[in-house]
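example protein:
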Amino acid sequence: MQGVRKFHPSGVECHYTRHMKKPRRRSPTELPMLFEIAPQPLAEELTALGGVPLVVRAFRSLGLPAAIQEHVHVKQRERGYDEATYVESLVVLNAVGGEGVEDLERLREDAALSKLLGHDFPSPRAALEFLYQFHDEQKVEEAKGRRAPEEIAYILEESAPLQGLGRVNRSLVQELGSRCAEQGIATVDQDATIIESRKQEALPTYEGERGYQPMLAVWAEMDVVLADQFRDGNVPAMMEPLTVAKAAFAALPGTVKTYYYRGDSACHESRLVNWLRDEKRADGPQGFIPLCGISARLSEALQEAILAVPEEAWKPYGEPHPEEVRECAEVPFVPGEKSEHKETEPLR
């Protein structure tokens, strides 16, 4: 504020005041930005897939390249990528969300990623040629010849390269077992999963879409695949599940001392059930499996037994769920079996 004193001709002193204008505060939008744009691009290479080297490091530290070189032999010539580089490249493709070998082109354009990994990526055509080496048309004809006259679906025997990949996976499981020796419990979780496909050769699944329905067995505590079996989409999940179960138990490391098993109703198949409850089971761990849960198919007799259970016998099961009620009860029901022996314990 500033004051001014003046004298009026009448002799009366007058005072005038006026306010000084405050300086305007500058808006942040008027300030210069804190970086400059260089007219020439930097020489460094960048990648948006900085997490991929961690996947590859795990892949290599588990000894998978050496296992692949030992068990998988499909290349006819020395030049070009070796089998381990092809497999590693396809693992990376899957890790970044690739949907087909065509997406390898995008990885091939990432020079920084190739430099981090120490190798370029194969072309889509080269990758397809590599994958086709795992197919054996003779196995297809043999499987068709084993079908009964009324059967349509069939399961292929694995080709030699696919068997080699299976041995690589088992070496992975063994290595994980040695690093996690305190994990002495293994629950084999077996299930078939539908994978949609736009391939012309893909067959309709029971849900209607075209695709494939491989059978998987997972070590639940470690969240790792123990065994798998490729299947066309029209192969029923209940068809020969015992083969996958045997392969899964055989893949478990010696550090496992306690075995469990669980499967959905597709695993409610007589040969598999009898093998699991046989304490002297062939091609599997010996002794009693203390927890072996398989979903039963809902037959009319089982449904009647469930409806006959008193309301007060049902108890809450698991954690509360906001959208559904989960309850369990003992159901006095023994499923009938095609063949029974007097020494066989009944199922419950």
Notes: The chain is about 30% helix and 15% strand. The chain has a mean pLDDT of 88. The two ends are 96 Å apart (CA to CA).
